Amino acid sequence: MLSLPMHMLPDLVPLILYCVFIYIQSCLPAPFETPEASHLDKLLHLGAYGVMAVLFYRTYLAGWPRALKRTLMWASVISTALYGLSDEIHQYFVPDRSADPLDWLADVVGGALGAVIYQRLFDAARKSRKFHPPPS
Q1: d(CA 118, CA 11)
Q2: How far out from the chain centre does Cα 94 lie?
Q3: How many Cα atoms are found within 13 Å in the side-chain-facing hemisphere of 9?
Q4: Neighbours of 119 (CB within 10 A)
Q5: 57-113 pLDDT, tens per residue?
Q6: What is the C-alpha to C-alpha distance for residues 126 and 51, in angstroms, rounded to an integer?
Q7: CA angle at residue 28 from 108 to 112, to 5 degrees?
Q8: Are 80 and 111 in contact (CB under 8 A)?
Q9: I want to staple 59 with a disulfide (CB 3.0 to 4.6 A). Which of 11, 25, 32, 40 is the partner?
Q10: How far is CA 60 from CA 35, 70, 90, 103, 125, in A?
Q11: d(Cα 101, Cα 111) in Å, to the nearest integer?
Q12: Which pLDDT value is given to residue 90?
């Protein structure tokens, strides 16, 4: 039997790589100004942190398969929110970037949506497999 960290590795690596990708993006100057679509960046935050929450959920599920669904969801949302907060603090110190509380709110909402949607899809897929086992 694999130890806990080794068992989580296939899910942990994509999460770490994604967090590094977000960090690198945050180190660069803002890619574009969008005065005509001023809330486009909030949608980008929502989507990016929704994906991050899914990666956190998968990693936590791999490490703690017997955890309650709500525990996995809360852990994913809180982890995503804390990463988003650290990202906004980091951006405060990056030239041509700023820390925006509304960006962090979009991170949190995206994280919550990502975790809930993934958990619902995961449950639906698991139920489908119970009723339709793969052919032998």
Answers
A1: 15
A2: 23
A3: 5
A4: 19
A5: 999 999 988 999 999 999 999 999 999 999 999 999 999 888 999 999 999 999 999
A6: 20
A7: 10
A8: yes
A9: 11
A10: 39, 12, 25, 25, 18
A11: 15
A12: 95
Are 61 and 80 within 8 A, CB to CB?
A: no
Give one DSSP letter per residue of the chain, joined into a string.
---HHHHHHHHHHHHHHHHHHHHHHHHSPPS---STTTTHHHHHHHHHHHHHHHHHHHHHHHH-TTS-HHHHHHHHHHHHHHHHHHHHHHHHTSTT----HHHHHHHHHHHHHHHHHHHHHHHHHHHHHHHSPPP-
- pLDDT over threshold 60, residue 135: no
Torsion angle of C-alpha atoms 106, 110, 112, 116, degrees rounded to 10: 160
CA distance 42 to 114: 15
Tell me the longest C-alpha to C-alpha distance in the chain: 59
